[in-house]
Amino acid sequence: MAVRSKTFRESYHEDIKLLNTLWSKAWMGAFILALVVLPFVSDDYVIILINKSCLFAVAAIGLNLLTGFSGQISLAHATFIAIGAFTATIVGQALEPTFVGQWGLSFVFTLPAGGLAAALIGLLLGIPCLRLKGLYLAMATMAFGEVMKHVFLSWDGVTGGHRGLQMPEPSVFGVVLDTDRGKYFFVVAVTALMIIAAKNIVRSRVGRAFIAIRDRDVAAEVAGVNLTAYKVMAFALSSFYAGVAGGLYAYIMGHVQGEEFTILQSVEYLAVIIVGGLGSILGAIFGAVFIVQVPELIKGLADLAAQVIPGLAGAYNEEWKVAAFGLLIMLFLIFEPGGLYAIWQRIKIGFKNWPFTY
Predict the structure, then answer these.
(1) Domain count, the chain
(2) Gap between the terminal Cα atoms of the chain
(3) Are 233 and 206 in contact, with CB atoms under 8 Å apart?
(4) Cα–Cα distance between 296 and 285 in angstroms, integer?
């Protein structure tokens, strides 16, 4: 009787499973347990960083679906996050005095509303941009972002103009989550759902069509892929994720204002997926954590250096942060185009093959 070695996968069903081995399931269980225990053993500063990392992860996954998987660049991702944030806030304010708001179920409507509003705008943007590629597409989306920023600041009756809008505190069945520690489980749960959804999208027919378009759109069209439908779908899906991230932003920050969503923030999300790894859901998560944590680490080192050399006090500012992002992108594009995900893959392969070299 033949016994399987468990070294090779024998079917496509095995190949697309989220967790293939007992070890991967055990590590995932340990990771979930760590997430549950973490808020009870860490300080508020760590919780704030984790909440911000989750926000960046959801937004970066959406951009990766568009840029990393379907090969279309966008410099308006922060704009779609703003659309989601404003929509979620407006819906949240409308539901606050109702039965739904009193029982703490408003987030069930606010987050999907933010995502759907952003997806609708993304759909309308994607249609006229179908014939654009590369730099031309980037310029078109950047122009759209600048126009929408003017709308956010000028439409006082809806967006609050320069004052912005106040987002009601999230609550679950009447329990108000008015602290960063209280919002932690809410943010992590939404992020987990979005990650699982993205993984299923990528391993479906839609995901395979995105990858075919990215690799060679002409060949994909010859093979029967509807370029128009899937390119517009990529814009809509990416915008939906950005809209949900905008809703999370509104809940985390408690206030939404149009000047917060700039072209620099869109570039920042591009840095996330480049550093993490284009065309990888896990890479987007790696990049989000890296981009959130590294500036804090650099700031800590700058403060430490200022204690040793007083002349460096106050030298680290926003301009240095921008320069650090640019340098990170350059270094990763030159020395590690695959990003942190490629490094992680090499580490896994090394553990699997050790002590053999083949």
Answers:
(1) 1
(2) 28
(3) yes
(4) 17
Residue 134 burial (CB count, 10 A): 10
Domain presence at residue 276: yes
DSSP state letters, 22-51: HHHHHHHHHHHHHHHHHHHHS-HHHHHHHH
Give the C-alpha separation, 248 to 196, whole Å: 17
Residues 6+ apart with CB under 8 A from 139: 75
User: Has residue 30 been placed in a domain?
Assistant: no
Residue 165 burial (CB count, 10 A)? 20
Q: Is residue 15 part of a domain?
A: no
| Ramachandran region, residue 21 (left: φ > 0; alpha: ψ -120 to 50; beta: rest) | beta
Count, residues in the chain: 358
Residue 161 falls within a domain, yes or no? yes
Structural domain containing residue 246 = 41-353
Tokens read off for 137:
């597409």
Question: What pLDDT digit, counting tens, does each position of 159-178 carry?
Answer: 887 888 888 887 777 677 77
Q: How far is CA 127 from CA 82, 205, 216, 237, in A?
A: 21, 21, 20, 14
Could you tell me where the DSSP H helices lie in 65-204? 77-95, 99-102, 107-126, 134-154, 156-159, 180-202
CA dist., res. 328 & res. 333, Å (int): 8
Q: What six digits make up the tokens of 101?
A: 């708001």
Place of tokens 């899906």: 237
C-alpha pair distances (Å), 181 with each of 43, 48, 167, 252 = 9, 8, 18, 11
Per-residue pLDDT tens over the stretch 248-294: 999 888 888 888 888 888 888 988 998 888 888 999 999 999 888 88
**Beta strands 255-256 and 171-172: pairing type?**
unpaired
- Cα 213–chain centre separation: 22
Among 92, 74, 64, 87, which residue's Cα sits nearest to residue 241?
64
Radius of gyration of the chain (CA): 22
User: Rounded distance, CA 331 to CA 268, Å?
Assistant: 15
